[in-house]
Amino acid sequence: MKKIAVAIDGPAAAGKSTVAKKVADILKITYIDTGAMYRAFTWYAIKKGVNCQDEEACNKLIPEVNIELKPGHIVLCNGEDVSSDIRQPWVSSQVSYIASYKQIRLFLVEQQRKMAEKDSVVMDGRDIGTYVLPNAEVKIYQIASVETRAVRRYEENLSKGIPCTLEEIENDVRRRDYIDSHRDFAPLKPAADSVLLDTSYLSIDESVEKVLEIINKKIGEETDA
Ligand code: DC
């Protein structure tokens, strides 16, 4: 198979990473969770005692932060394994602020583009099809209703032993949707050439099937052209 990039964007907790991971495993290509990079930066700012709503103070941390994505979905920040900490509510509640800062985005986007230069990738995020990889062969905009997304994230947190209530999760999802789609730089929005995938009534396996169908159709069209 020739080198391809599959961009999967969409709002918080739409199941992008679960689906993207499975698709990448099936295609035997690299999965890149860009949200994990914003989360790891946020983790670092919080650990340093920096206020995540202070853009200037957060920007100053850029030279100190080294984020690595390792096989097995391990996320390292300056060599420390932060894979489970970055899913905790104390990170989730702050990450949209960090992700709205242009300098931090440029810093992380540069690394994301480098990763996609080397290998075929499935990359998920908010701005992959619109900004990070505008020439991606396949672009998917994955959505689900707010209620469905809140229930999915709530169940995921419970299964990981992360304490929360459904109401808290739903409020957090709505708040993050708002901040992510209203920021000035590279906001969350569908790319003009993306395919809309609503997973509100689809299981994970059905969503994976749909994404594979979209990829096969797009790649087939390119081969035919
Ligand atoms: O997908 P996620 O919930 O792990 O993303 C965490 C936050 O990072 C989310 O609030 C949006 C932001 N994000 C972003 O702005 N751009 C990306 N490419 C990925 C995530």
Q: What report would you give on this structure?
A:
It is built from 9 helices and 8 strands. The protein is α/β, with parallel strands linked by helices. The strands form 2 sheets. A 5-stranded parallel β-sheet has the order 2-6-1-7-8, sandwiched between helices. It has a 3-stranded antiparallel β-sheet with strand order 3-4-5, covered by helices on one side. A hairpin with a 3-residue loop joins β3 and β4. It binds 2'-deoxycytidine-5'-monophosphate. 2'-deoxycytidine-5'-monophosphate (DC) binds next to α2, α4 and α8. 2'-deoxycytidine-5'-monophosphate binds next to α2, α4 and α8.
Q: Determine the number of helices (DSSP H or I, runs of at least 4 residues).
A: 9
State the oligomer. single chain
Proportion of residues in extended strands: 15-25%
Output the helix-strand order: EHEHHEEEHHEHEHHEH
pLDDT under 50 segments (min length 5)? none
Main sheet strand line-up: 2-6-1-7-8
Mean pLDDT, nearest integer? 94
Please give the radius of gyration in angstroms. 17 Å
Main beta sheet: 5 strands, parallel
Kindly state the percentage of residues in helix.
40-55%
